[in-house]
Amino acid sequence: MDFNGSDTIPGPRTEDHLPHTAQAAAKIVIVGGFGVGKTTMVGSVSEIRPLTTEETMTQAGIGVDDNYGSESKTATTVAMDFGRISITDQLVLYLFGTPGQQRFWFLWNGLFEGALGAVVLVDTRRLEVSFDVIGRLEERGVPFVVAINSFPDAPRYPIPQLRTALDLTEDIPMVECDVRRRASSRDVLLTLMRFLHSLTMTGSRT
Predict the structure, then answer these.
(1) 48-97 pLDDT tens trace
(2) What percent of the chain shows pLDDT beyond 90?
(3) Got the DSSP string for 41-82?
(4) Pick from 122, 135, 142, 160: most CB atoms within 10 A?
């Protein structure tokens, strides 16, 4: 029963309903180290109210979680973030943000099941945390693009220099973004979709 004494169970909000024109859906995973902006990206671009599993950080994480560059962060994702965005009238993307701390990375196994591709968010203040993330994607054979999240106090480097630092081949797209802005986050996803399409076209010609 609801609070009004009715037996009606509240359903999803009207704006959360899947568009009736949708014909295809794809699962996209947003990955990166702790505090790089995964939850913010899902929240900024999702057309539905995002599902988050953030918990307040406690002293138990001191000495375990590396929060360098994110010392003011008071909450952290412990399972996943979830959102949805319609790329076109026919194509819908389901977005899954992964937890950043390595002690929660065992959850990645389930989140990557059925994923079409991934976005790797990078913080230039902590490039080293991206190495293991990229390595895990390469081991799994998951196509990905790299998005440099522009934090106000983060150093800026030319894309070619960042590509060298991350040991990325020329074929992997790299873009700059501000995940607080919906249009910027959407453009990252469009970059990923164009990359995935190019891989499909290349495969069809071989």
Answers:
(1) 988 876 554 444 444 444 555 545 444 554 457 899 999 888 889 999 99
(2) 52
(3) HHHHH-SSPPB--EEE--GGGTTTS--TT-TT--EEESS-EE
(4) 122
Taking the C-alpha atoms of residue 102 and residue 125, their distance in angstroms, rounded to an integer, is 18
Q: Of 186, 136, 149, 184, which Cα lies nearest the Cα of 37?
A: 149
Structural element, H or E, at residue 8: none
pLDDT digits (tens, 9 = 90+) for 132-158: 899 989 999 999 999 999 999 899 999
Handedness of CA 123, 127, 129, 131 (dihedral sign): positive
> Cα(193)–Cα(179) distance, rounded to whole angstroms?
17
Alpha carbon distances (Å) from 42 to 47, 82, 171, 188, 197: 10, 7, 25, 12, 22
Question: What integer pLDDT is reported at residue 206 of this predicted model?
Answer: 53
Identity of the residue numbered 1? M
**Under a CB-based contact definition with an 8 Å cutoff, are residues 137 and 31 in contact?**
yes
* Tally of CB atoms within 10 A around 78: 14
